[in-house]
Automatic annotation (TrEMBL):
<dbReference type="InterPro" id="IPR000731">
    <property type="entry name" value="SSD"/>
</dbReference>
<feature type="transmembrane region" description="Helical">
    <location>
        <begin position="210"/>
        <end position="229"/>
    </location>
</feature>
<protein>
    <submittedName>
        <fullName>MMPL family transporter</fullName>
    </submittedName>
</protein>
<keyword id="KW-1133">Transmembrane helix</keyword>
<feature type="transmembrane region" description="Helical">
    <location>
        <begin position="308"/>
        <end position="330"/>
    </location>
</feature>
<feature type="transmembrane region" description="Helical">
    <location>
        <begin position="336"/>
        <end position="362"/>
    </location>
</feature>
<keyword id="KW-1003">Cell membrane</keyword>
<feature type="transmembrane region" description="Helical">
    <location>
        <begin position="593"/>
        <end position="616"/>
    </location>
</feature>
<keyword id="KW-0472">Membrane</keyword>
<dbReference type="Pfam" id="PF03176">
    <property type="entry name" value="MMPL"/>
</dbReference>
<dbReference type="InterPro" id="IPR004869">
    <property type="entry name" value="MMPL_dom"/>
</dbReference>
<feature type="transmembrane region" description="Helical">
    <location>
        <begin position="236"/>
        <end position="260"/>
    </location>
</feature>
<feature type="transmembrane region" description="Helical">
    <location>
        <begin position="691"/>
        <end position="715"/>
    </location>
</feature>
<feature type="transmembrane region" description="Helical">
    <location>
        <begin position="393"/>
        <end position="411"/>
    </location>
</feature>
<feature type="transmembrane region" description="Helical">
    <location>
        <begin position="266"/>
        <end position="287"/>
    </location>
</feature>
<feature type="transmembrane region" description="Helical">
    <location>
        <begin position="649"/>
        <end position="670"/>
    </location>
</feature>
<feature type="transmembrane region" description="Helical">
    <location>
        <begin position="721"/>
        <end position="750"/>
    </location>
</feature>
Length: 766
């Protein structure tokens, strides 16, 4: 079949597939679900899901903090009237299931057969302000929870429907903000926090940042391609191929029902810069052959033949680098690894179908600077090669010193994460969350499941006393600023039965008194706080609380101390406990991060080792290839340690991805060396010729990769920032190692065994 006809058929088939991809991409949605970051398949996740089914999720709430005007306290009548109005407004909103507010907080009193709720605050009676404020500060559970310790701010806490999605959540938040504006409350006097708030902000920013990163990447890559090839087709064709691959990759992701989240949002940018490698190697070789005077057909065939093997291997190693992320128990990382790996293979397929088809249909280009008449890369690369070999002892010595310092620094890396890790320190959302940590109980939830021993209920006196003992420990040593449990219920009922007196807020002294209290508990069972803390039959209870977000390292220490206390101080025949909750699940990710990273890197290294062994059948050559690619990884680990960057969910993917991408150029180099050795018996001349042939493509692709990843440093998400910065640095150090260490190591390792390299030539060439 004529080449032009084959090219037309190829373009038609690819066009139809692209139209199908566009159909699926049109259905793609942005989403950020906090629950997706729980460790999938973990027994603790199954346990929490069952627990949440009985008591509700611990993070389906929004905190609205209101600061009193300057010079006033929260007990001013005018301010409390606004708080009460907002409370009523929020309570009437759809998807709000319960509201706790200083103006609705009441002191229940039982008289006869009825329960009377006496409010703590009376906004319409200013003369009672001193009496009300004194009572508030003496009542447990109000100060630090609904009212700040300095009486300068209040919190309205509203529970929402379970796992509320973004659209209704955004509508609810918009309605609250509109009402705040209508009441004349300026933005600097109110604060919002909670899972729903973070979810809304994250998705909106993802959409904006994806647009910004893609625009910056296109501009940057276009400029670099123009400087490299100085022809319109040298710019347009790679862009068409890679943008087509991005469409295909997103189409596949959409077809599997996966949304764009914090991790998969990196796919288009990642693919845009990584996918350029194959097209640049093909076009560089194509232009080189044209410059040497070869025909258009021969130039294209040579470029495809010489680049195909190396590009196929590099696509394989890069995709494996992403596929190894599927070892992660965190669903967003799993999806990112799976679909980016698939997209890398699709890019390879398009590079060797779409690109050749377009080159066939284009007229033979007129090169502006023919190789015979002007400056070429050969001179620059030739001088660089000579310099590297002349200073080889210095190159190795400096590399060894830098490597030693990096390993020492890398040992300082710690695994640590917080609930809002991906937001920068001065982000407005993070500042709002810190407001609640500074003025109130905090935003990190705490959950402890309570199960009474055989033959007991959660209201058994011994069970209640053991629970109270745990509460005291949590407030004294663990750091909980707010705590509630079945003990809270019994103490509240006792107080209500004794005229609402604060001195009566304690557990009963005897079993007989407890039984009298339990007969009255049915008066309160319909109250939502009762349903949230104990099952109706008393077979299970919940101890819940809030505290500052101390980070996973500190949380692990606190949990270890709590487990010791529970093991030594709580009688398991009376009460059995189990730590659970969303924060506990997020902390559990840290246990898997190191294992996942080591597993991913190990798979990568094994695959590269196998590829080199198949190519050269030499263990020595495997070592030669691995060293220039592991050195940059260790240097960047040293940079992380020196800069105090913690290992967390977002940064744990860096090393695996960086190694998978960085090894591409090495694969291209050694695959070209393998071909050159078939015609060139001298190892030195073969390495030099390969250096000159591959050097330009290695430098150009590395610049594009580094530049493309550098666009991510403009992200408002810390995780994305560090992915861009650290992978960019790895690739930068990688190209330096590629052009300095690799040729030195090849020549050092093989100068004594030329026969092993030359011997297969007659058989392969015959």
């Amino acid at each position: 079949m004529p080449l032009r006809k084959l090219a037309h058929l190829t373009l038609l088939a690819l066009g139809l597939l692209t139209a199908l991809a566009v159909f699926f991409v049109a259905q793609l949605r942005f989403n950020y679900n906090f629950n997706d970051f729980y460790p999938a398949g973990d027994p603790d996740l199954d346990y929490y899901e069952q627990y949440a089914g009985r008591f509700g999720n611990d993070n389906d709430y929004v905190l609205l903090g209101l600061e009193a005007p300057a010079g006033q306290t929260v007990f001013e009548s005018r301010f409390l009237t606004k708080v009460d109005s907002l409370t009523r407004f929020i309570r009437a909103r759809r998807h709000v299931t319960q509201v706790s507010s200083p103006t609705t907080a009441s002191n229940p009193v039982v008289e006869g057969l009825g329960v009377f709720n006496v409010p703590y605050l009376h906004p319409q009676e200013p003369e009672r302000r001193a009496q009300d404020s004194a009572l508030v500060y003496r009542t447990p559970g109000l100060v630090g929870n609904l009212i700040s310790r300095d009486a300068r701010a209040v919190t309205i806490l509203f529970q929402t429907s379970p796992n509320l999605s973004k659209p209704p959540g955004d509508s609810l938040l918009a309605a609250v903000r509109t009402e705040l504006q209508r009441q004349g409350i300026p933005e600097n006097e109110y604060h919002l926090a909670g899972k729903m708030v973070a979810q809304s902000v994250f998705v909106d920013r993802l959409q904006m940042e994806l647009l910004v990163f893609m625009s910056l990447s296109v501009l940057l890559v276009t400029g670099l391609l123009w400087l490299t090839f100085r022809t319109w087709w040298g710019v347009v064709l790679p862009l068409v191929v890679v943008l087509g691959a991005i469409l295909w990759g997103l189409g596949v992701m959409s077809a599997f029902g996966v949304s764009i989240d914090l991790m998969t949002a990196l796919l288009p940018v990642m693919l845009f810069v990584v996918g350029m490698s194959d097209t640049i190697h093909i076009i560089t070789r194509y232009v080189t052959e044209l410059g040497y005077g070869a025909s258009k057909r021969d130039s294209l065939l040579i470029a495809l033949k010489e680049s195909g093997f190396g590009s196929g291997l590099s696509a394989l190693t890069t995709s494996i680098g992403f596929f190894t992320l599927m070892t992660s128990t965190i669903r967003p990382i799993y999806n990112f690894g799976l679909f980016t790996g698939i997209a890398v293979l699709l890019t390879f397929a398009l590079s060797f179908t779409l690109l050749p088809a377009m080159l066939v249909l284009l007229r033979k280009p007129q090169l502006r600077i023919p190789r015979q008449e002007g400056h070429s890369w050969d001179g620059v690369l030739g001088r660089m090669f000579r310099t590297v070999l002349a200073r080889r002892h210095w190159v190795v010595a400096i590399s060894a010193v830098v490597l030693g310092l990096s390993v020492a620094s890398a040992s300082r890396i710690r695994i640590n994460s917080a609930l809002l890790d991906d937001l920068s320190k001065n982000d407005p959302v993070k500042l709002d969350f810190r407001f609640f940590e500074r003025q109130f109980a905090g935003v990190r939830p705490f959950e402890l499941d309570l199960k009474p021993g055989p033959g007991r209920t959660i209201y058994d006196l011994q069970v209640l006393r053991q629970t109270e003992q745990i509460e005291n420990y949590l407030q004294r040593d663990y750091g909980l600023n707010f705590v509630a449990s079945p003990v809270t219920l019994i103490k509240s009922v006792r107080k209500a039965l004794n005229g609402g007196l604060l001195d009566e807020y304690r557990l009963p002294d005897s079993e007989a008194e407890l039984q009298r209290l339990l007969r009255k508990v049915k008066l309160f069972r319909k109250k939502p706080e009762f349903r949230a803390l104990a099952l109706p039959d008393g077979s299970e209870g919940r101890l819940t609380g809030r505290m500052p977000d101390v980070g996973s390292i500190r949380a692990d220490q606190l949990n270890a101390g709590l487990r010791r206390f529970l093991r030594t101080s709580v009688d398991s025949t009376v009460l059995q406990t189990r730590l659970t909750g969303s924060a506990n699940l997020i902390d559990k990710n840290n246990e898997n991060l190191t294992l996942n990273m080591i597993t991913g890197m190990s798979i990568d290294i094994v695959m590269v080792t196998l590829i080199v062994l198949l190519l050269f059948r030499s263990v020595r050559m495997t070592v030669v290839v691995l060293i220039p690619n592991l050195v940059p990884i260790l240097i960047v680990a040293g940079v992380m340690g020196a800069a105090g960057v913690s290992m967390k969910v977002s940064t744990s993917i860096i090393f695996t991805i960086a190694f998978g991408i960085a090894v591409d150029d090495t694969i291209h180099f050694i695959s070209k060396l393998k071909l050159v050795l078939l015609q060139e018996p001298s190892l030195f001349k073969a390495v030099r010729k390969t250096y000159l042939m591959a050097g330009k493509a290695v430098i150009v692709t590395s610049l594009i990769l580094v530049g493309g990843f550098s666009t991510l440093i403009f992200s408002s998400f810390d995780g994305t920032f560090y992915v861009g910065l650290l992978i960019g640095l790895t690739l930068l150090f990688g190209v330096v190692a590629e052009l300095t260490l690799l040729p030195i190591l090849i020549l050092w390792f093989y100068r004594h065994k030329p026969k092993e390299i030359r011997q297969p030539v007659p058989a392969l060439g015959g």
